[in-house]
Amino acid sequence: MYQQPFMGLLKVSLKNDNTAIGICGLIKRDSLQDIDLGYGYLPEYLCQGYGTEAATACLTLAHEQLSLKRIVAITQSDNQACIKLLTKLGFSFEHNNSQIDELTTLDQYGLAL
User: Fold this and answer.
1) What is the model's pLDDT at position 1?
2) Which of 17, 54, 77, 94 suits 38 as a labelling partner, its CA being 20 to 30 A distant?
């Protein structure tokens, strides 16, 4: 995934001391037609705006450098923090992507850039 410029998951770190707090980036998955916004953060750094900041930078890069018109994101149906972030970024629920177990599905969200 890192062979194409601007693609791949990148380390997200604090500006003041470079402490690694998570990852964020653009991924081309074989199972998806569109480029996927992927991210994950250590629990102690959730809900502090870091996800919004890093994801916004990735979306800007996707639009301005890669000229993408659309991007998707996949999350578990019960991951409320992730769904909240996607909604804040302007993503909309599109469909259930796959079933994980009796209670949980992977849901696909999409965003026109």
Assistant:
1) 74
2) 17
User: What's the number of domains the chain is made of?
Assistant: 1
Our CA dihedral for 56, 58, 51, 108, rounded to 10 degrees, sits at 100
Q: 30: domain CATH number?
A: 3.40.630.30
Interatomic CA distance for residues 25 and 2, integer angstroms: 10
Expressed as residue numbers, the domain containing 93 is 8-112
Estimate to the nearest angstrom the gap between the alpha carbon of 65 and the chain centroid: 17
Indicate if the pLDDT at residue 16 is higher than 80: yes
